[in-house]
Design a protein that fits this description.
This protein is of the alpha/beta class and 334 residues long. The chain contains eleven helices and 13 strands. Strand 6, helix 5 and strand 7 form a beta-alpha-beta unit. Helix 4 packs parallel to helix 5, helix 4 runs antiparallel to helix 11 and helix 8 runs parallel beside helix 9. The longest helix is centred in the first third of the chain and has 21 residues. The chain is globular and about 55 Å long.
Length: 334
């Protein structure tokens, strides 16, 4: 198994993709809007991936946060709210905010598990900061670390009940950036003391099954390398100070925050101690180069992957409408 998650080009596997994925044996896959036509098509696609590897328990992930980050969209799927609305409700009624977030996440989980998705890139544990770039913005649960952790926990639990494993992101914190890491490399000059509030939610939820790194230079920790490629950030901050021992994956290595070829970036992340590399864009030449350069996944990575997939629960009898109604009644309080 190669320690990488690959994307696909369309609504079904092409013959070239099928042959390559069978030989490369990536740890998992990520779906985007280009892969999401309707329920029947998506279930056929995810089933074909499981059949290809002979693994019923396969990491198949998606970014379905709600708000502006949603790959499965209306009219085939309902729209889900952004993270900020739950933070706003929490400010007025904390328990209601938590319960609304949990119900919403379980509804998301049910929609994803129905089509064979096993992992969602949610919740964000980034603590929002005044004046920061809006790449996080209303995706975040708020400006206060414990609020972010409380809502994040409810989201993890809701996804789990819906049959999906969540990912806490973006470790060790993306809330301070002044530029969008999709477009350029952010540099955060905050002190170690200031960064304590950024890592606080991740420390509270360090038992989470999967975490995602941030492509950000934190000068207090490593002024030469972004977190994804920094051995110090991965080992000393994420693994030791935060205490996270789950499956650690990169954010998309194609983002402009990272320099070098895709294969160089992938190997750099694994060398830094990340378990899995995320390569999203289904460019065959780049995927081939990554698969050729990466070493096979180690036993600890395989153990973490198995534990992450085992985290999710069998969904309860379908109660999607009940969950949405509960969420909307609670959000009405805000």
């Amino acid at each position: 198994m190669k320690p990488v998650i690959f994307g696909m080009a369309g609504l079904e596997l092409s013959p070239d993709e099928r042959a390559f994925f069978r030989d490369a044996d990536p740890a998992g896959y990520i779906l985007f809007k280009r892969n999401c036509g309707n329920r029947e098509q998506m279930r056929a696609l995810t089933d074909s991936l499981r059949d290809l590897h002979g693994r019923d328990d396969l990491l198949i992930m998606i970014d379905q946060e709600g708000g502006r980050v949603a790959r499965m969209q209306p009219p085939e799927w309902p729209a889900f709210p952004n993270g900020a609305v739950f933070g706003d409700l929490y400010e007025k009624a904390p328990i209601s905010g938590i319960e609304a977030a949990r119900a919403n996440a379980e509804a998301i989980g049910l929609a994803l598990s129905e089509v064979g998705i096993t992992v969602d890139a949610l919740p964000l544990l980034d603590v929002r900061q005044p004046g920061a770039n809006d790449v996080i913005g209303d995706r975040a649960y708020g400006y206060e670390p414990m609020r972010v952790a409380a809502i994040g926990r409810a989201v993890l639990e809701g996804l789990q009940a819906g049959g999906v494993t969540g990912i806490v992101k973006h470790m060790p914190g993306h809330g301070r950036v002044l530029v969008d890491s999709h477009k350029a490399l952010p540099v955060v000059d905050a002190s170690e003391a200031e960064l304590e509030s950024d890592i606080a939610p991740f420390r509270q939820l360090n038992w989470a099954p999967i975490g995602m790194t941030a492509h950000i230079v934190y000068t207090a920790w490593d002024d030469a390398r972004p977190g994804t490629l920094s051995h110090y950030v991965v080992q000393k901050i994420i693994r030791e100070r935060i205490g996270f021992d789950g499956l650690l994956m990169t954010d998309d290595i194609d983002m402009k925050a990272l320099s070098g070829t895709p294969a160089e970036k992938a190997c750099g992340a694994v060398d830094a101690g990340v378990d899995l590399v995320l390569d999203c864009w289904a460019r065959m030449d780049e995927m081939v180069a990554i698969a050729e350069k990466l070493p096979d996944a180690g036993e600890r990575t395989k153990e973490r992957l198995a534990a992450a997939l085992a985290f999710r629960k069998m969904p309860a009898p379908v109660r999607f409408a009940e969950l949405v109604r509960k969420r909307d009644e609670l959000l009405g309080l805000a």
